[in-house]
Fold each of these.
Amino acid sequence: MKSLTKISLILALIFTGVVSSAMAQRTIEMVGTDNMKFSVTSIEAEPGEEITIKLTTKSQIPKQAMAHNVVVIDKDANVDEIANASARARDNEYIAPDYEDEIIAATGLAGGGETVEVTFTVPEETGEYEYICSFPGHYPAGMKGVLKVQN
Ligand SMILES: [Cu+2]
């Protein structure tokens, strides 16, 4: 009975540890509006850090005409090329299947009033990683930002 109490105490401690480390994870919240800009255009993170990017779209326009996402792209990738290909990939939520290896993380599409999020591990390699909205026309209009990975 005594050892059982000990075990449950240990389990409770482990559980608390897991929960608090999950809560320590950073969430970056941003908004996308009809002006096709992210409200946050620069994120700093440590190599290997787990972060959540949360995007809310504010718009009265129907989703098929105005939606946003956040697509984090590998730093050596050709962002223009990925944006162009993704803008044509409507059936895949505007993520070009051919470039999925070069995409570090992507949210789903958020129409007006919707919130989407993605949790991912920041690359170990320091540097600047661009993130874009891949909805047609939005990246060319300047809907982008930079994830700066630094120690
Ligand atoms: Cu957008």
Amino acid sequence: MPSRRNLLIQAAGLAGAALTPTAWTSAVAQTRMADSPFGLGVASGEPAPDGMVLWTRLATKPREMGAGMTSAPVAVRWEIAEDEGLTRIVARGRTLAVAEAGHSVHIEVQGLKPGREYWYRFLAGGHSSPVGRTRTTPAAGAEVDRLTLAYASCQKYSAGFYTAHAALAAERPDLVLFLGDYIYEEAEKGKGVRPHPVEEPVDLAGYRHRYAWYKADPHLQAAHAAAPWIVTWDDHEVANDYGGDQDRTNPDPAVFLKRRAAAYQVFYENMPLRRAQRPVGPDMLLYRSRGWGDLAQIQMLDTRQYRNRRTCDAVSDGKRIPIDCPERLDPARSLLGERQELWLQGELRASRARWNLLGQQYLMEQLMTRLGMVGNDGWDGYAASRRRVLETWRDSKVSNPVVLGGDIHCFFAGDLALEAGGPAIATEFVGGSISSLGASASDMKLLLAGNRQLKFGEGETRGYGRVELTRKACTVTFRGVENALVEGSPVTDLAKFAVEDGQAGVKRA
Ligand SMILES: [Fe+2]
């Protein structure tokens, strides 16, 4: 008998693989389905010069446990065209969506032309999916003068409406970077502005239900259908503030790693990721880089899976309070793990791109505050790890490093330096959050007063960031939702900044 793990791998491997005629006749799914199985929309991701991943996950009843699907495989066809009306089809194929992979489909399309738009859809059970827009990247090293991308993070479903996603979708950027907290695993009983599942997920069925609940949102679906995404995760895709094999609430690594394996599997099922990212047990390779001609290189980090154990916590009333302590400066500590750090250094040294965007989960700036808190869950708890990244940027003369971050539920723009008041080595833009609640105006005032390298901070407004890269400048616009607790609230420019080619540091634009 194959092990359960092998079964999962084989099942996931079906997606995108060539199928024998026998497999087709045994797939029940040629039959017509009463309800559309495309209740979770479509997505694309991981664009390359010759193709990208096309994704869907079948669900006839997204809000029910099991999403309305049976254990039977479902035959799915896909097609991709050069026009929005899908008349000039350039590739098509078929695959099976199987229950062992949560009825997800990941198609790696190849053979397309570089640097252009495409449109795609899926067909199953007598229904057509919505049409998604995607694109290939320019050829490696090709001279490119523009890239427009949006970045977003932290979309607690119960905390607000996805108005920011609707605005992001309307912009039709070339690319979307999602920087973590795609779902929140918490029970959230009776809290928030809209209903949410009560049980905290710990297994495949629970996480699948949670993702389906989020993905049923039409604005989130629109954002996925508008552009290819490159995603990473933070903690809430698994469990709050977890790190490596350590859960906050369950000290037994063996128990936690089982949960992590389920969470990673379901993350993969729900994201437009390549086969290289398919998890094996509790391990999943998520750090990677993507290029955009000679204009940009994007390094996406995983700051959760390989980090050393958390340190510098005081316990009061059973609650952990992050404090300052010498251990957080220990050079042996790494937020990325040794292998990922070495990989990042190699990527940065080899990059010939004009802009080097680091997609990661945090505010990278040191947060020593008069509020008495230290960001021990992020780079502050691994200060030597941050220093090594800054030193690589400086010593290898990496061209225009710009950090994009999430996690903290606030907008920040700041200069990154090795010492407070020292010369800026990189420039940082963080957040905000799509819906998760952030810092109050009074807390923000204290925070900015204690951190002079932060040039801008806003914690009460939800939203996302827009980045426009040219050969001369990186322009970042913080896009804010007037009130994310109300549906359809207006979205406007909150602040606009520029980084000039060859000059690290935030300037008002
Ligand atoms: Fe978050």
